[in-house]
Structure formats: C-alpha cells, structure tokens
Design a protein that fits this description.
SUF_FeS_clus_asmbl_SufD, single chain, Fe-S_cluster_assembly_SufBD, Fe-S cluster assembly protein SufD, SUF_FeS_clus_asmbl_SufBD_sf, 4 helices, mainly beta
Length: about 400
C-alpha cells in the first residue's frame, strides 16, 4: 500500500418486534425480501483467528456466506487474489494533537480489538504490509474531524487501520472510500475509558469496486462509540461492523444507510457482543433499493452473555424497495443468556411506497417524482442527521437524489 500522506440467557429467539416504517406499505417476503430470525448466524464456521489456514475456503453454504456471491469477490475468499496493480492513495487530514504511524504486525495495538471472524478478514490481516495507527491522546477534545480519504486506483490491496482514542478524549473520524479497487481491509477502534468516538465510513466506490472489511470497536468503561456506515457504490461491498465492551457503562450506537442500485450487492453483517454489565447498544440501518438484481443483505446479531446484567439493547432494519427486480435479506438475531436486563428487542420491515402517500403529496400540487424524492429523503433523514457534519450530510443527500434521478432517466 502506498504510504499515507499527512495534511494540516434463559431467553432465546425472542419474537421480532416493531412495526413498519412510515414509508413502507407492508412487510413482504419471497421475491422482494426474506426476513428471518435465527441465532445460528452467531455461530461461525470457524472460531475467530488471525490465521487464514484456520478458515475453510467458503462454498456459499456456510451461514456467514450464504447470501454472498462468492464469484464476485475476485478471489479474496479463496486465496487466489494477490496484491498488485496501482495501489491505494490515502490522504489523512488531522488536527495537530493527533499522531500517525505506520507499524508492523507485531505492534501490540494491531489486533487488540479482536481477531478476524472470516477468511477474508484473516487474509487481510496476514497480507498487509504496514498497519496505519492514528492516535488521539487522552483528554484531547478535537475541534475538527480526522479525515481519511481512501482512493482506489485499480489494484488489489490488503490493509489494516487502527484508530486509538485515549481516556476521556473526544474525536470524530470520517473515512471516505472512492475510486476503483479490490480491497480487503480491517479497521480497529480502541476507545479508552470515558472516551467518545464518532466514525463515519462512506463507501462511494466506482461501480466495479469490491470491498470486504471487518470493523471492530473495543469500547472502554463508560466510553461512547457511534458508527455511521454509508454505502452507495461498488459492485460488491461486504462489511462486518462489530462491538465489544471492555468494562461496564459503555454505549454503542450503530447507524447505517445504503442505496443499492442495479446489479449491486451490498451486505452489512453486525455483531454486538454484550459481555460487560450495564452497557447499552442501539442499531438502526435503513436501505433503499432500485433496479434489476439489486441485492441488499443486513444481518444484525446481538449476544447478551450471562455476565451482562443491566444490558439495554435494540436493533432495527428497514428497507424501501423502489422498483421491481430488487431483493432484500434481513435477518435480526437476539440471543440472551440472562434475564436480568433493562430491555432487548429487534425489528425488521421491508416494503414499497404506499400509493396513498404519493397521492397525498401529489394532491397538494407536488409532481410525482418530487413526491418520490421527498419520501425517500424523509426515510433517510433521521440517519443522515446522526453524522453531525454539514458538508458530509449535504453530500449524502445530494448522492441520494442523484441515485433517484438515475432511476428516472
């Protein structure tokens, strides 16, 4: 990889809960979507490991691979992909308090958040040349975000990024992926006690890009982690956001939005591991789909271990299908090993526009396409507002509207 450039339990299988999003007409199944519940998604075909040899080559029948078109991974899953071609171009813009290093795999900070959970993540860990470590010192409160621009230039690359936020420090990080690449990359977030970290990861790849990655957050005592994952581009994007708690009082908010277009495969597989007591998590992902063979997959796994008394958790996935030919697979999973919790629930809903909604807007003089845009913008608005950076929010709203324009053209 090119060197970054710096600038200035007793209860299991709880029922699916919740209702429909306001923009959806009905929950659907079959050709449009599959909504299911099963704790088996937390049981991987091999235990976590940094060694590729510990993972069998997937064939598509495994629980963690059954939705993924393996032939479109360009060899990332079976070992046939080798680094080559033009490398990634990475630019980092960070406040003066922040340090950046390139380190070897032996550095104790690399892999601290957790081991790889599938063969692609293990391959990325085994193959990267240098890991990038960005450190926010303890008690530092950054006035400006850290911006990491990752631009693909056509090659195949394996990468590893560590973002470490010291105790009682506060930071916002934006990771922006553009261009064309075949990329397997792992990202770690280390939060010290009382730290606050917001991460916005944008996948705005060219249509031919392939991106597979594991994002693992290690949340310290009384620390707060917010993740906003935004996926628009790429031929295939498969991300594994994961959260673990180092001590009591930790909070995690995982938000995501995706717009899946003609022929794209976008897959988000979340896992929140509640092992410490009195921790909280909230997951909300929303997607819109349009075009023939557009395929979105959302897996939401929450495990509340026996020691995690006082846990409060909820996960939500909602999908808006804009055209025929699109498919959603939405699988919420909740596994609870203690009855001494504050609350736990999950919801999944998929559907189309209600004709009554469009008629209501059109009856008030709003043209049909403008009404359609308003409904989609309203569907995503709550999540976009979680970003908290006006320039990024405006760009994403513009991207959503551009996707809608393309569907009309």
């Amino acid at each position: 990889m090119a060197e970054p450039q710096n600038s200035p339990k007793d209860l299991r299988q709880a029922p699916v809960q919740g209702g429909l999003p306001s923009a959806l007409g009905s929950t659907t199944s079959g050709a449009i979507a599959v909504a299911a519940e099963s704790t088996t998604a937390t049981r991987m075909s091999a235990p976590p490991s940094f060694d590729v040899a510990d993972f069998p080559v997937p064939h598509g029948r495994e629980e963690e691979w059954r939705f993924t078109p393996l032939e479109r991974l360009k060899g990332l899953h079976d070992g046939s992909a080798a680094a080559g071609g033009a490398d990634l171009k990475i630019d980092i813009l960070a406040p003066d308090e922040v340090t950046h290093e390139l380190v070897d795999r032996s550095d104790p900070r690399v892999g601290k958040a957790g081991k790889s959970v599938d063969r692609v993540a293990a391959a990325a860990f085994s193959a990267f040349e240098k890991a990038s470590v960005i450190t926010v010192p303890k008690e530092a409160v950054l006035a400006d975000p850290i911006r990491i621009a990752v631009h693909g230039q056509g090659g195949t690359t394996f990468a590893h990024q560590v973002i470490e936020v010291g105790a009682f420090a506060e930071a916002v990080v934006v990771i922006d992926h553009t261009g064309d690449a075949v990329l397997a990359a792992n990202v770690e977030y280390h939060l010290g006690d009382g730290a606050k970290l917001t991460v916005v990861s944008v996948q705005d790849w060219d249509d031919t890009a392939v991106h597979a990655g594991q994002h693992t957050a290690l949340v310290g005592r009384d620390a707060t982690f917010k993740s906003v994952v935004v996926t628009f581009g790429g031929d295939l994007v498969r991300l594994n956001p994961r959260v673990q708690y180092q001590g009591p009082g930790g909070e995690a908010e995982l938000y995501g939005l995706y717009f899946t277009d003609n022929g794209q495969h976008q897959e988000h597989r979340l896992f929140v591991d509640h092992e410490a007591p009195n921790c909280r998590s909230n997951v909300a992902y929303k997607g819109a789909l349009q075009g023939q063979d557009a395929h979105a997959v959302w897996i939401g796994d929450v495990l509340i271990r026996a020691a995690a008394t006082g846990t409060d958790t909820y996960e939500l996935n909602r999908n808006l299908v804009l055209t025929d030919g699109a498919r959603v697979d939405s699988v919420p999973n909740l596994e609870i090993e203690t009855g001494e919790i504050v609350g736990a629930g999950h919801a999944s809903a998929t559907g189309r526009f209600e004709d009554e909604q469009l008629f209501y807007l059109m009856a008030r003089g709003i043209p049909a396409e403008e009404a359609r845009r308003l409904v989609v913008r309203g569907f995503f608005a709550e999540l976009v507002q979680q970003i908290g950076l006006p320039d990024v929010e405006e760009r994403l709203i513009a991207k959503i509207e551009a996707e809608l324009e393309a569907s009309v053209a």
